[in-house]
């Protein structure tokens, strides 16, 4: 039995599960990576570890320093976990638009929160820009390091292991990889690793239908936490992507609820968006094909929202 020497070593090696009930019989196989099995219940543990250790390695983050980030919750909780384990102070810029449960999670792990007000609780380009500006100013204070997740390429390498795990768990039997775009780091890192094994692998990006900027549309307000910043994020690499699909907030919520009721899998809204898009891809492929997507975080992070209220 392997015993981790600290919580950071428990990140990764999450289960891969085949969906049965939400996938129509004429579709190809759909597999989901349960990233909620990471220590804070999110795939963001992978990128938090990579960003902190990358900054430690080249001196951007010094012993006793303060880490700063702008985030809606999952990245914040992941950074809080890593910073607690390593002994860093963490200051998070967040908003009332994100779930109270995520904010409570960050606080519980020792993060200091600064809240930016949203417009009617919606996720908009203006909100993300404002949060980033507040974080930038905090990051300029002496002894502070702004991880700046939207621009931080350290996280890309942090997701390479995710692609490697998927390849190993499927035995190389994967035809398409489907994933939402938040910072762009996870789809870029995972697909880069997968393409090292199979250059012909189909990669499909997913974004909110209400804010389809990657598809060439206009930014807009939506309700899918963690994705759809309303602008082309710096880590976005269109060369790695074959298709872009849009999923509405209502579709994503409905699928997350179905996953819980029909598959017994408890996940968040962005995970629901991934499944909606993965089923569209699975409908197009032969039944013998395999589509893999990510369940980004645990549904436990959304109990303080309307996602699982009276469903």
Q: What does this 3D model show about the protein?
A:
The protein is 36% helix and 17% strand. With 311 residues, the protein is α/β, with parallel strands linked by helices. The chain folds into 2 domains: 7-39 and 159-302, Rossmann fold, CATH 3.40.50; 44-146, Rossmann fold (3-Layer(aba) Sandwich). The strands form 2 sheets. The chain has a 6-stranded mixed beta sheet, sandwiched between helices. A 4-stranded parallel beta sheet has the order 5-4-3-6, sandwiched between helices. α1 (44-58) packs across α2 (74-86), α2 runs parallel beside α3 (100-108) and α8 (249-263) crosses α9. The chain is globular, with a radius of gyration of 18 Å. The protein starts with 15 loop residues before the first strand and ends in a 16-residue tail after the last strand.
| Number of helical segments with 4 or more residues | 9
Helix content: 25-40%
The shape is globular
Q: What is the H/E string?
A: EEHEHEHEHEHHEHEEHHE
Structural class: alpha/beta
CATH topology of the largest domain: Rossmann fold
Q: Write down the overall mean pLDDT.
A: 94
Biggest sheet, spatial arrangement of strands: 1-2-10-7-8-9
Number of domains: 2
Distance separating the two termini: 40 Å
* CATH-scheme architecture of the largest domain: 3-Layer(aba) Sandwich
Largest sheet: 6 strands, mixed
Count of individual beta strands: 10
Instruction: Please report which band the strand proportion falls in: under 5%, 5-15%, 15-25%, 25-35%, 35-45% or over 45%.
Output: 15-25%
The CATH class assignment of the largest domain is Alpha Beta
Radius of gyration: 18 Å
**Low-confidence spans:** none
């Amino acid at each position: 039995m392997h015993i981790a020497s600290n919580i950071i070593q428990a990140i990764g090696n999450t289960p891969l599960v085949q969906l049965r009930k939400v996938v129509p019989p004429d579709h190809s196989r759909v597999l989901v990576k349960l990233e909620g099995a990471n220590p804070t219940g999110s795939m963001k543990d992978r990128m938090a570890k990579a960003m902190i250790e990358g900054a430690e390695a080249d001196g951007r983050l010094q012993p006793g320093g303060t880490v700063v980030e702008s985030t809606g919750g999952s990245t914040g909780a992941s950074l809080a976990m890593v910073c607690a384990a390593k002994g860093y102070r963490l200051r998070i810029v967040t908003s009332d638009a994100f779930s109270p449960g995520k904010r409570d999670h960050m606080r519980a792990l020792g993060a200091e929160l600064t809240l930016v007000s949203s417009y009617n609780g919606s996720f908009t380009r203006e909100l993300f820009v404002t949060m980033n500006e507040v974080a930038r100013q905090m990051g300029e204070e002496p002894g502070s390091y702004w991880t700046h997740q939207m621009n931080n390429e350290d996280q890309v390498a942090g997701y390479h292991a995710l692609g490697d795990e998927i390849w190993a768990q499927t035995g190389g039997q994967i035809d398409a990889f489907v994933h939402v775009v938040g910072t762009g780091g996870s789809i870029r890192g995972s697909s880069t690793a997968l393409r090292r094994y199979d250059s012909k692998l189909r990669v499909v990006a997913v974004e909110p239908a209400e804010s389809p900027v990657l598809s060439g549309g206009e930014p807009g307000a939506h309700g899918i936490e963690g994705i759809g910043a309303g602008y082309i994020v710096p880590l976005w690499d269109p060369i790695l992507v074959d298709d872009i699909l849009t999923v509405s907030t209502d579709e994503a919520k409905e699928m997350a609820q179905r996953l819980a009721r029909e598959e017994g899998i408890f996940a968040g809204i962005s995970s629901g968006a991934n499944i909606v898009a993965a089923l569209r891809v699975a409908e197009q492929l032969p039944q013998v094909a395999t589509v893999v997507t990510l369940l980004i975080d645990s549904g436990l992070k959304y109990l303080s929202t309307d996602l699982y209220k009276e469903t």
